[in-house]
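re: the backbone from monday

yeah here it is again, tokenized this time
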């Protein structure tokens, strides 16, 4: 059979003038396997008949021809044939994929929406929740190719491409225009190995553009611990007895503004990370601890054209996460984070509060050693046989930090609450509500107070595979959303026609594989 499979592969190479994908090759191999199975079953039947009737065949006259033998087989052989095990095909497919050593994973979301006035707008996703409040076409594609493997060693090359696909215009090409909706970047570009380090043969040792795994608040679409980086070197999954240890040093450069915001220039920083994960605590619970320290190669950027550059201040971030697991796969994470200087500043963002050393690709602001902390709850639980409830609850507070909205020496306090209960009709249908509310107050150094707050209600029905809200995809959502701005003193945001609220109807698809 393997000869036949190899012949099929070679014949396909002759028959097609274009390259055949791995999936197409596997499909052809599976098709040929089924054909071979049928032929083998027929051959077994003929052999069994011949063996049981060999004396009759020897003495019978006239001699049996191929046609008469086949007729006799069709007439006499009526024994049931064992059903072919379909899992064998899956095993063969997995074996071929493993032998090739290539895998592809991905994620994307896409959808359509219409608003009561003009096109729909997103606002404060990071505080009010995602359902009915996001209109981007984000994607991630991960390509992983094994380069070498033996009994002790393995080497893989990994590429992660991510970005956004514009969903407004019919023709919207990727380009350098910053206003272009279509974005594309290589987020990961590294080589990872196993078995090369005598002191930790079980660890993953990697080099390249990569970072230690982040931690996302899924309902709010931002990370309390980011994995963004330039190039780096890391060790992951070191056996540490009670848990596993991850270590990394990564480059993360920014463009530093001068105080007049008239010019910027590149600054080099390095960040050191350590994580201890999978620490057992009690039944169905474990803990993760993480620390990050960022430092620039030079502390003061000097003056240029009379405007000094902001000093690049060292910054640290500490995180602890306790996960409690419930029945049916439910869980809840409880996290505490503390940071200072620029990483503390990121806590003050009412929208995307990802913990970063800079703001986008820039570093700016007068950081004076201020600190911030936040308490986080995230998870989902089955509160009945047909009811599931997801949550994202966050309390944040900071003192004497730099806020991109209200400047240096700012104190702030914020509350975020998003709850998503749903009724489970079956494994493929859910109906529910996502309710979100937030408020944030900034007290600037000149004793001016600024408030940002809003509410959102989304009614939805989802067609999905499996029942988990956070762990199962694909999912198609039909929704109606009411979004209202209560206070907008930090960003002066409004919807079309200076309205403070918006009604939208839409559909969204979200998949990962």
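seq for it, each position gets an aa:
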């Amino acid at each position: 059979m393997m000869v036949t499979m190899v012949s099929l592969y070679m014949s396909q190479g002759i028959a097609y003038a274009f390259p055949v994908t791995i999936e197409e090759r596997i499909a052809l191999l599976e098709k040929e396997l089924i054909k071979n199975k049928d032929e083998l079953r027929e051959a077994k039947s003929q052999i069994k008949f011949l063996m049981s009737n060999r004396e009759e065949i020897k003495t019978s006259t006239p001699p049996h021809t191929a046609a008469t033998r086949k007729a006799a087989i069709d007439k006499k052989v009526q024994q049931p044939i064992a059903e072919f095990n379909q899992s064998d095909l899956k095993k063969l497919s997995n074996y071929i994929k493993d032998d090739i050593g290539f895998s592809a994973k991905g994620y994307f979301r896409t959808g359509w929406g219409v608003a009561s006035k003009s096109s729909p707008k997103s606002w404060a996703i990071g505080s009010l929740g995602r359902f009915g409040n996001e209109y981007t076409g984000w994607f991630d594609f991960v390509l992983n190719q094994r380069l070498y493997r033996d009994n002790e060693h393995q080497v893989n090359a990994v590429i992660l491409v991510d970005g956004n696909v514009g969903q407004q215009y019919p023709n919207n090409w990727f380009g350098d225009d910053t206003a272009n909706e279509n974005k594309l970047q290589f987020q990961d570009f590294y080589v990872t190995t196993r078995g090369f380090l005598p002191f930790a043969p079980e660890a993953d040792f990697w080099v390249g553009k990569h970072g230690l795994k982040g931690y996302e608040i899924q309902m709010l679409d931002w990370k309390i611990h980011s994995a963004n980086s330039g190039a780096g070197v890391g060790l992951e999954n070191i056996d540490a007895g009670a848990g596993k240890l991850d270590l990394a040093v990564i480059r993360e450069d920014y463009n530093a503004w001068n105080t007049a915001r008239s010019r910027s220039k590149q600054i080099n920083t390095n960040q050191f990370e350590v994580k201890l994960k999978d620490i057992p605590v009690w039944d169905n619970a474990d803990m993760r601890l993480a620390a990050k320290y960022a430092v620039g190669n030079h502390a003061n950027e000097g003056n240029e054209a009379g405007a000094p550059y902001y000093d690049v201040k060292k910054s640290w971030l500490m995180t602890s996460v306790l996960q409690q697991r419930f029945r049916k796969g439910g869980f809840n994470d409880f996290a505490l984070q503390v940071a200072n200087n620029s990483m503390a500043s990121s806590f003050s963002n009412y929208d995307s509060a990802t913990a970063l050393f800079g703001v986008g690709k820039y570093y700016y602001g007068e950081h004076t050693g201020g600190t911030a902390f936040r308490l986080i709850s995230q998870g989902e639980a089955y509160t009945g046989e047909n009811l599931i409830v997801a949550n994202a609850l966050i309390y944040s507070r900071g003192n004497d930090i730099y806020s991109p909205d209200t400047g240096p020496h700012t104190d702030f306090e914020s509350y975020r609450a998003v709850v998503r209960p749903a009724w489970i009709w079956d494994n493929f249908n859910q109906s529910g509500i996502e309710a979100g509310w937030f408020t944030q107050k900034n007290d600037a150094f000149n004793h001016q107070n600024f408030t940002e707050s809003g509410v959102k209600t989304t009614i939805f029905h989802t067609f999905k595979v499996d029942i988990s809200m956070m762990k199962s995809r694909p999912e198609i959502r039909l929704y109606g959303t009411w979004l209202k701005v209560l206070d907008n003193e930090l960003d002066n945001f409004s919807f079309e026609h200076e309205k403070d609220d918006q009604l939208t109807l839409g559909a969204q698809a979200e998949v990962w594989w």
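Confidence is low (pLDDT under 50) at residues 1-18, 57-61. The two ends are 32 Å apart (CA to CA).
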